[in-house]
Amino acid sequence: MAPATSLVVKNSADTVIDDKTKRVSVKTLVESPGLTSIPSNYSYASHPNASAASEPDDTIPIIDFSLLTSGDPHQRSKTIQDLDRACQEWGFFMLVNHGVSERLMKEVLEGCNEFFNLPMEEKMQFAGRDIWQPIRFGTGVDVKIEKFFFWRDFLKVIVHPQFHFPTNPKGFSEVAREYCKSTREVTTELLKGISKGLGLEESYIDKATDFDTGFQLFAVNLYPPCPQPELAIGIPAHTDHSLLTLLIENEIGGLQIQHNGKWFNVNPLPNSFLVNTGDHLEILSNGKYKSVSHRAVVNNKATRISIAVPHGPALDTAVGPAPELVDNENGRPAIYVPMKFKDYLERLLEGRPCNLDHVRAPVA
Ligand SMILES: O=C(O)CCC(=O)C(=O)O
Ligand SMILES: [Fe+2]
User: Fold this and answer.
1) Which-ligand-closest: CA of 278?
2) How many angstroms does the Cα of residue 255 sit away from the middle of ligand 2?
3) How many of the other CB atoms lie within 10 Å of CB of 277?
4) Nearest 5°: phi and psi at 47?
5) Which ligand is closest to the CA of 291, given by its number?
6) How far is CA 11 from CA 49, 80, 95, 196, in A?
7) Residue 235: CB within 6 Å of ligand 1?
8) What are the chain's domains?
9) Nearest to 6 by CA among 139, 144, 138, 148
10) Helix (H, G, I), strand (E, B), or coil: what is residue 236?
């Protein structure tokens, strides 16, 4: 295996995305002539988290959305039970028959591809480190302390409660608007089912999180082919801040989730959504559901694109454990304290390994 090099791509000022680290995008790096090994600061393999993953487990839950919304009470209550089990045992499921068209899913992925293929100066207008910037193009991750660089570029757009979007490539904004509206509608229905599965009234999560004005991101990850995929990582293990994240990808594969202490490769069913429970469902359910740890690995053959759409509470809303799920007398105290979602997101920038540590209740 060729050693990781300390090759430095000639960073002309107009390709440096991040002033602080003088980094160019991974795409720029990959397109530079003669790249046969990764620059040493992308080398991740010595990190303790870098353990091998098992083949996909065929018990990864599959939820049929059409049964949740069919109007048949028996099918609905069975699907609610399945959802409850999936959230409790995996924190992750594949959603099929969700009603979002294959055409729309293809078009939105294509739009993302075209965005990353725009000239650099077009994308550079969105470069920046401020997480509140409505449209942001960058590389790596968002934390202040990055020990090594990650093999991914990103586009992050705030799409709710206000919809923002780049005007180029042409037509992308319209497609993305329709896509984000669809994932929001699907999520609204899932949250109703999840509320019921937790033994709460159907609208509980909607009301407790002010979901109508909830924070929604359109987060695209681009993982160009990596000459030494075994040494690099696309996104290291993390949990999502949201209630639920809906993810699609261009059928290349690379998502891994942690289950019972082991890592699993996820090979999505065609046209399915990969759905994971985020920190705010763990908080609201008082730990009954776990915010699942996941990561993205890279490959040396093809560019992978994934679109993660995390749906969260309203920024000014502080979500705590549902009182119905707290029972102080019977050994089930509230294990989290409420924190405004806006403040929670800002803490992420401190780069602590587990976001939920910020809101863990002191042990009495
Ligand atoms: O690319 C993937 O499969 C994972 C992306 C992800 O976890 C994220 O954007 O939070
Ligand atoms: Fe994630």
Assistant:
1) 2
2) 9
3) 27
4) -70, 140
5) 2
6) 31, 53, 43, 54
7) yes
8) 53-359 (2.60.120.330)
9) 148
10) strand
Q: What is the dihedral of CA 181, 184, 190, 195, to 10 degrees?
A: -140
Query: Does residue 9 register a pLDDT over 70?
Result: no
For residue 46, pLDDT beyond 70: no
Mean pLDDT of the region 266-290: 96
Count CA atoms closer than 13 A to 311's CA, side-chain side: 26
Are β-strands 244-249 and 339-340 bridged in parallel, bridged antiparallel, or unpaired? unpaired
CA of 157 to the centre of ligand 1 (A): 15
Rounded CA separation 160/181 (Å): 9
The string of pLDDT tens digits covering residues 129-177 is: 888 999 999 988 655 556 678 899 999 999 999 999 999 999 999 999 9
pTM for the whole thing? 0.93
Question: Could you give the CA distance from residue 3 to residue 255 in angstroms, rounded to a whole number?
Answer: 26
Q: DSSP state, 21?
A: T
Nearest to 179 by CA among 125, 220, 119: 220
Output the six-digit token pair for 67. 């049964």
User: For residue 53, what are the contacts with CB-CB under 8 A and spacing of at least 6?
Assistant: 256, 262, 263, 264, 265, 297
Mutate to test the pocket of ligand 1, among 294, 298, 307, 311 (most ligand atoms within 8 A of CB): 294
Task: Name the residue with higher pLDDT: 36 or 187.
Answer: 187
Q: Which residues pair with 38 in a beta bridge?
A: none
Given a cut of 60, whether residue 211 has pLDDT beyond it is yes
Is residue 10 over pLDDT 60? Answer: no
Tell me how far the alpha carbon of residue 130 is from its chain's centroid.
18
Residue nearest to atom 9 of ligand 1 (CA): 308
Other CB atoms within 10 A of residue 56 CB: 15
**Higher per-residue pLDDT: 139 or 220:** 220
- Indicate which atom in ligand 1 lies nearest the CA of residue 266: 3
- Residue 294: CB within 6 Å of ligand 1? yes
Write out pLDDT tens, residues 291-333.
999 999 999 999 999 999 999 999 999 999 999 999 999 999 9
**Would you say 46 and 4 are in contact if contact means Cβ atoms under 8 Å apart?**
no
What is the whole-number distance in angstroms between the Cα of residue 10 and the centre of ligand 1? Answer: 29
Closest CA to 249 of 197, 297, 292: 297
Alpha helices in 238-336 (DSSP H): 279-284
